[in-house]
Design brief:
Helix content: 55-70%
Family: Belongs to the sorting nexin family.
Subcellular location: Membrane
Keywords: Protein transport, Transport
Strand content: under 5%
Membrane topology: Peripheral membrane protein
Shape: elongated
CATH architecture of the largest domain: Up-down Bundle
Number of helices: 9
CATH topology of the largest domain: Substrate Binding Domain Of Dnak, Chain:A, Domain 2
GO molecular function: phosphatidylinositol binding
Strand order of the largest sheet: 1-2
Radius of gyration: 32 Å
Length: 383
């Protein structure tokens, strides 16, 4: 949209998320991926894999923000995506200070109650429960999709090893340490396989003469050369399996993660509404009740005029605060109603994700099936 290229560090994203949440606390602001791996938590992923996962998470974050109909028109996003200066964090904070939060700038903020349906609370509770169930279900689907993508990459490694055994073989009488072999067909962060070294061969590359006990009609010499040629097909199969893993990761897992980030941001919004605006409103009402009781006590038991006037002034201030809280509560519900509608608009994306999953499987099995079919006639020549 802006056709610009800017460099952003994680800390820049962090500040952008901070001011975005301050300005649009009543909207679905996506969460940030963690900056570091949690200490003391057992995990099988490497630091490079974690950094790649964080990069993908930041990409999903900015993608969701840029697609939001409210955020996309705001100065904060424009500043983050276009400012080329050295201190974008200060620029973002200054932009927020100039505008304040959405309640202060939205033209219908004080009339939000008029736009709310009568059963807004019931709708809110129902929608929250439905979206929670959808989120939990698709979270499990994402876990299964990740497992399938990992399995495809493991299959690629096994096929490559299988072909390597046909080509080089291995003398079981020799035991050498493992070595790393480049494998660019695999995932970018799994480019090296730990494979055995190349000891004296017993299959495809074995050039030793046959023992005298072997029949003069033995075809082992020709057979082992044929086995060597088959390794090419297994290398191709390995490449196809690796491509399948990447498709499953990019077309399925990543899209599921984007959808889940959106649903999680909605659940976070519901929690902010209940623990934020509603809680503050209740605290303000409680404080107001305490002041009213103090005022009643002052009228029964005469006190100094100055202290009574001071108490009256505090009550007026608290009444204004309560009125503002009530307006913010209605505006929060109004925004929540809009964000709920936005989430339901996005729900059909699930069919596109499932379609991408099916297409990736069809393409992967078709491509590998073609290689297997080409391999089958060559096996007939061995017997």
């Amino acid at each position: 949209r802006y056709k610009t290229s800017v460099y952003r560090r994680y800390s820049d994203f962090d500040v952008f998320h901070e001011v975005l949440l301050q300005r649009f606390s009543y909207r679905v602001v996506p969460a940030m991926p963690p900056k570091r791996m949690l200490k003391g938590v057992l995990t099988s992923i490497s630091e490079r894999e974690f950094i790649e996962g964080r990069r993908r998470g930041l990409g999903r974050f900015i993608n969701l923000v840029a697609r939001h109909p409210i955020f996309s028109e705001d100065e904060l996003l424009k500043t983050f995506l276009t400012f080329n200066g050295s201190d974008v964090q200060t620029k973002l904070r200054d932009a927020y200070k100039r505008t304040g939060d959405e309640f202060m700038t939205n033209r219908i903020a004080t009339q939000a109650k008029e736009y709310l349906p009568a059963d807004i609370q019931a709708q809110f509770l129902t929608s929250r429960e439905v979206i929670k169930n959808i989120h939990n279900s698709f979270n499990r689907l994402r876990d299964r999709a990740e497992t399938m993508a990992e399995r495809s990459k493991e299959n690629a490694a096994d096929l490559l090893m299988f072909g390597r055994e046909l080509r080089y073989g291995r003398d079981n009488s020799q035991h050498s340490p493992l070595v790393t072999v480049p494998c660019p067909e695999l995932h970018p962060f799994a480019k090296f396989l730990f494979l055995p070294p190349l000891p004296r061969s017993v299959l495809g590359s074995d050039g030793s003469s046959l023992p005298s006990w072997a029949s003069s009609q033995s075809s082992w010499g020709a057979l082992r050369q044929s086995l060597k040629s088959l390794s090419v097909e297994f290398t191709v199969l390995s490449d196809k399996a690796a491509q399948q893993g990447r498709r499953e990761e990019d077309d399925v897992v990543e899209k599921l993660s984007l959808f889940l980030d959106l649903l999680q941001s909605y659940r976070d919004l519901c929690e902010r509404h209940e623990k934020g605006v509603l809680h503050e409103h209740q605290r303000a009402l409680h404080k107001y009740g305490v002041m009213k009781r103090q005022m009643m006590s002052a009228t029964v038991q005469p006190k100094e005029q100055a202290s009574v006037e001071q108490l009256e002034s505090r009550i007026v201030q608290q009444e204004n605060a309560i009125q503002t809280m009530e307006l913010r509560n209605y505006f929060s519900l109004f925004c929540l109603h809009q964000e709920t509608q936005l989430i339901f608009i996005y729900l059909p994306i699930t069919s596109h994700i499932l379609g991408a999953f099916v297409n990736s499987q069809v393409q992967g099995h078709t491509e590998m099936g073609q290689v297997w079919n080409e391999l089958q006639p060559k096996l007939g020549c061995l017997f």
